[in-house]
Amino acid sequence: MSDPAGLPPLAGLRVIEIAGEACAYAGKLFGDAGADVVLVEPPGGHATRAYEPFVDDRPHPDRSLYFWANNTSKRSVVLDLQQPAAREAFRKLVAKADFLIESESPGRMAALGLDYPDLKALNPRLIMISITPYGRNGPRSGDQATDLTLMAGGGIVWNAGYDDHSLPPVRGGGGQGWYAGCNFAVMAGLAALLYRDSLGQGKGQHIDVNLHAACNVTTEAGSYSYLVAGQTVQRQTGRHASVLKTAPVQLRCADGVYIASGPPPRRLEQYAALLEWLATEGLLDQFPGTAALKEAAKMGDVNFGSRDPGEQGRRIVDAARDGLTFIASRLKGYDFFIGAQNRGFQCGIIYTPDEAMRDPHFKARGFPAQVEHPELGRTITYPGMPYRMTGSPARIGRRPPLVGEHTEEVLREVGFAPSDVTAR
Fold this sequence. Notes:
Strand content: 5-15%
CATH topology of the largest domain: Rossmann fold
Shape: elongated
CATH class of the largest domain: Alpha Beta
Number of strands: 13
Number of helices: 17
Number of domains: 2
Radius of gyration: 26 Å
Distance between the termini: 45 Å
């Protein structure tokens, strides 16, 4: 159902986020979806403001591209939570909030007197989301972790890499371990919101997100293959890790661009579409497997992917796979990508980040987001929302905040004089 006011889906909700590397993306998703996200930073700003690269290669807490990527649509308040007056200001913020997001070490919130039992007494409607490496109460709750160790321990790294196992596994970049947990945090938070405002009779709850577990459940067949059958999957180039080796899916096009083609055509209508494509490109007489594809087109509705195809079926499936490879070798990557998509073949093009932002499809969906940076006197292109909602639009609402940019504004909203706290 469309929102007649055209408001973002989470408009009207207030989120307090204690700045932390592991939870920043969760706050961004809430903010870009329309929630008012107040980022509580320590004096001088959070440590991720010092992460490179920096815009124009000029190091500064307000120019970190890493910080920018994870902190759009937020307001920044500087509070030294070690100070009693700052903690009192924090309590006033939480008392009027729907969510609190934090990724502090287990025990720190309790030591500050700001843990869930303390805060729900002020605000029974509060939904508190804690994101920690191994959960707050498990046997490893006190262990230290990084994004890399979480992905390695959770199994993601084991699944990622090449068919050539003399090469080491490949680490996914960009903080994927944090992002895995943050996505689960947002989903759990929204479920808690629905419960609070319906069956929960207005009561909030505490959500404990285990980053290690979040990484583990993203390993697809990796974990349950071992737990159920005692089998270990093996990494494969550009495709799912599997106990049994599957056929390669990478196709190199005439301009050197690579395509991830997915499973080969296996159904009657796909064989017909492949024959049509070969004919359209003038390649029908040049392709050695044309006869096998024509043979398949006469056999009726037979899906060779649903059972053992036998010798004849294997010959046809091989011809179909070879047909895609043959076409790819004669077309530019983007032309092959569009041609395959238009004919219903599973297909993805391997882009650089810059190429992805220029893709007409991504542009049409509004993925490249233009964000004004008045302090720089220019507009910066950001990656937009990872999903699109047609009924209620969601988009980056504002650029990432400067250090403490909204301290006075936010504290006055809750009736607290900024002069009463150390906020520099």
